Each structure stands twice: as C-alpha cells, then as structure tokens.
Amino acid sequence: MELVLCLLLFFTRRTWAIDTLTQGQSINDGETLVSAGGSFELGFFSPGNSKSRYVGIWYKKVSTGTVVWVANRENLVSDASGVLSINEKGILSIMNGTKGIVWSSNTSRNSAEEPIAQLLDSGNFVVKDRNDSDSENFLWQSFDHPGNTFLPGMKIGINFVTGSERHASSWKNTEDPAPGIYTYRVDSQGYPQVVVKKGADILFRAGSWNGLYLTGSPLPVNPLYSFELVLNENEVYYTYQVQNNSIYTRFLLNPSGLIQRTIWNERTNNWEVYATSQSDQCSIYAYCGSYATCSTNESPPYIREGGHGCLLWFGDLIDIIEFSEGGQDLYIRLATSDLNHIRSKGKLNEKLKAVIIAISVIIASGTTILALLLYVQKIMLRNTGEHGKEDLELPVFDFATIATATDNFSSNNILGQGGFGPVYKGTLIEGQEIAVKRLSKNSGQGLEEFKNEVTLISKLQHRNLVKLFGCCIRKDEKMLVYEYMPNKSLNYFIFDQTRSKLLDWRIRMHIVDGIARGVLYLHHDSRLKIIHRDLKASNILLDHNMNPKISDFGLARKFGVDQTQAKTKRVVGTYGYMSPEYALDGLFSMKFDVFSFGVLVLEILSGKKNRGFSHPEHGHNLLGHVRPED
Predict the structure, then answer these.
(1) Has this prediction a pTM greater than 0.70?
(2) Which of the following is catalytic: 29, 176, 534, 593?
(3) SUPFAM superfamilies given for it (predicted)?
(4) Element (H, E) at 378
(5) For this structure, is 534 an active site residue?
C-alpha cells in the first residue's frame, strides 16, 4: 500500500513570491519559497500528527502535501521558532528559538562571490553563485542528499574519487523522517546493481544493467521514462528522467522497505502505484537459495529485443527468478574444470542407468501423446472459431502514457462528452494524434459496454469504421484510444445553419455512401455479424477528407451466422433512431440499423433532427412529415 504523508503544514501566514534566498534573508516558520514554475514549495512542516518542525520540500500542486525531501531529518525543531538562512559563505543553517544551530549544509567547496539558495522546478534546492547556473559548479544541492524519495534527475551512486555515496533511505515511520533501516542504493561490488538493503543485508536487488534496463526489475517499457546507469573510472550512478514535466512521478522507499513507483492522478487526487519492487516472495533476495529458480507462476517466457551479452560469475548464483513478463533468457556455461570436477565424482552404475533410460522412455512417450492431444485440440478450436488468440488482439496502454498524451487530461483537450464519458484529444510521444474516451463514474454506460466495445471493434477493420488503437485499464480508470478525427462528428455540421453550408450535395452523398458501406460490412462482410444499435449523427465521425467513420460500439450485439433476430428486456439506444419493434417489444435485427440509417439519410438531406423537428401544420416528427399521406 502506497505511503501517503498527510501533513499538518503551518505556513499559511506568508508565502514568498520568489524562489531564491539571498544573504541577509531568512525564512521563518510559516513562510515558504515556491519554485519558478510552481511545482515545488519549501518551508517548515510537521509530519502526520507530530508537533515537531522540519524544513522540507513538497509538491505545491499536489493536494496531499507530499514531502519529497527533509533537511533536518535527525534534528527537529520543537516549536514554531525555527529560521532558515544563508550566510556569506553559502552555508545554509536552521536555528531554533535560542539561536542554536539545528542543521547546516556544511559545504566543502569554495564559496561564491554572491551565494544564493534557489528552489528549482525539479525539486532540487541548490546553493550557487548568482551569476553561475552551471550545475557542475553548485556549492551544495539537496539532490546530493536524498531522503526517502528518488525524483527525476536525482542520482544514486558512488563517487570513486571522493568516496562519497548518494542513496535514498526510508523514514522511521510516517511521523518521524529520521533515517530508517532501509536504503535504496547502488552496489558497486562486481557488476554494479541497484539494491534495497536492510541494514547491511540485501533485501532486494534490481539486477545488473544490460544497456536497456535493470535485468532483475521487469517494469513495463514506457517511452515517458529514460533510465541510465553510468559507470566510469570516476563514478557510478543510476538516474532517470521524464519526458513530460507536467506528470508528477517518484520512487518512494517507504518505512517497510518497499520501493514503489507512483504517478499523481489529478482526477482521483491520489498517488497511483505504477510498480512495486517487492511484489512477491520471489523478489526477496536469495529466497530459494543457491542455484535455484524462483518462479512467480508458470507463464511462458517473454523475450525482448536487444540488451544481451555475457557476464562472468564467480561464487554461488543464488537468486534466479522466472518472471511472467519481462526479464531475460539466461544461459549458463560452466568452465571445463568444473565439468571435470563433476565427472570425477564417479560414474553411474548400470542399474541406475537402466532406471534413467526407462524413465526417459516413459516421459518421451507421454510427451508425444500429450503433443498429439494438444494438436488435435488446436485443430478443433480453429475449426469452431474459438481459438484463444482471437479473444483480444488489442494493445494495452499504461496510464502514464495516456496522461502525458492528454497533458494530464487537461480541460483544454476535451473534444466532447458522450454517454461513455469525456473524450480527450491527445498526442503520443511519437507524434500520433489520438482521441481518448474516458469512462466516467457517472456514465450511463458501464463495464459491460466497455468490454463489449473492446471485444467487437478490435476484430473489425474497414475504412468506414473508426480505428481503435488500444485501451487502458487501471483500477477504476477505463479508457479507449481511437484515431483522432479532425472534423469531429456529423451532427457538428448538419444541424448548424452556418457549418451545414460547407456540406454541398456531393459531400452529403459521399457521407451517405460511406455510412452505407460501413453498415453493409457490419451486417454481411465482416468475420462477425454485428448489429450496431446506436447509429446516429453524433456517432458518425469525419476525418480530414470528410470520410465518415462509424463509432461507439458499446451497445452493439454480435449475431450468429444463421441468427436473424434477438430480443432484450433492456431497451437501450437513442430515441428517434430506434425501430418501432425495438422500442415497443425489445426485438432487434439488421432492420434496426437499416431504420437508423434511413433516419440518418433524412437528417443529412434536410439538416433537421428527427425528434426535434416541428411543423406548424402538424405535430409529427421528421419521419411523419416526409411519410406520404394515405
């Protein structure tokens, strides 16, 4: 469970409008600095229900007041008398009410001509010369002294020249930020690897760096993050960056020793756990002992491209893990001397050989029979159209990718609102424009409609059907990712007096023809016979060439090859487009879509809505108006 620090922050009296502290200035308890972009804030705070005061940095725009760094972790201020200041040598200090120094930065570098302390938008609190912004010349920076949070741009590692080490350490508990017993650091012995230690003992290791990722930490590949492990004669360090600074993400080492990668979800006002390092028993270092393989399940192997090579290993190999996804294939080659040592233990006697041969024959025979049974079953499944691989052929996007593409679901990117929920415009990192339908908690459509749309449209491909790129399912978040239609929907044009003039008769006939082709494909030409059940102007999208695309398959139904009609007790759809037999008795067939198509044609030709139509001589709708009198 993610650790969320609920803080009692007593800084409501005054907030500095600047991000910089200069010589002669100070910050009293109740005053804060805010970074230039408004991402982070620095000041005095009390964690949890504690009354102790600390100088810390927290997210300015995150409602939970999540602290990412603490200065005086081991030396608290007992009351609200604390003061943070910087002297002429560029040394930061925290003093209590009796002018006693509680904490100081104690920089060992040469002082600057005009030292200042500045809170950056990365969350780094730095001391530098006012006229020198080169990070290599910083006199001091908080990123060199991590707390329990590993932020983008931070480095954990070892400087071989100075012998100094940067590592994250857990809090003792949620109310005491003093260093706990767990650390997150780079182990430089042998091949460098990132580990979590409990005291001096390794609790978890993320594996060695293979040029792409850490081999023991099979996190989902995500273009939003770029990880790097640098090793040279001067230093070794591990770091990461994010491609979109509007997305708040962090690695948190909580008091129980868990490493969690979290992302802030503005919609739920909560930190979403994207990945956890020790998610099962196999993540515990040496859990199965030497030369054992710890398997989380029996899923088939998963192979990634690249990131391969050779490692020389001396001593016991004690923590091989089989992952259900991610990871790498491992091939072990023993030295000839080791093989000779094994052979020297003696040869098997003839009786043991006979037993082994007999067992081998039995296993081989059983394997052959099993293979034949599986082959026959596969043929039967293929013939009945129930092959498992056809269940879902759709990419799955992670939440962070969609959040970045839509600028964290900015209201400026909302394209519209439907029964499913809001629709956002987004741009993937490779430049592909997308439309994201996000299921609203108050939506008239629910999980069943979501599953229905994913299952059906993933199997359909036609130039007059909207293309589904993938989906995103994370806890209560459910989203569908479509191709972006720059000309919005049909109702945007035909029911507007000004925009309808842009549709001449050639374009209108082109749209009618495209819709007809799409319906024909659904009813006769696709692998599945599909009844859409919600054909209407707002569900006809238009691309940049005004080609119509049928969308929204949440209410669609799949028919068998010989099935012609079905009945439902739950009448759903849009009144004005429903066929009479469906609206009255719940009966639907291909005639349902044909009826809806006819209404659409009338609306395209007349520019009038069927249900909203009125005439001074009668009270009929559009259908009644055009129907010839008996």
Answers:
(1) no
(2) 534
(3) alpha-D-mannose-specific plant lectins, Protein kinase-like (PK-like)
(4) helix 350-384
(5) yes
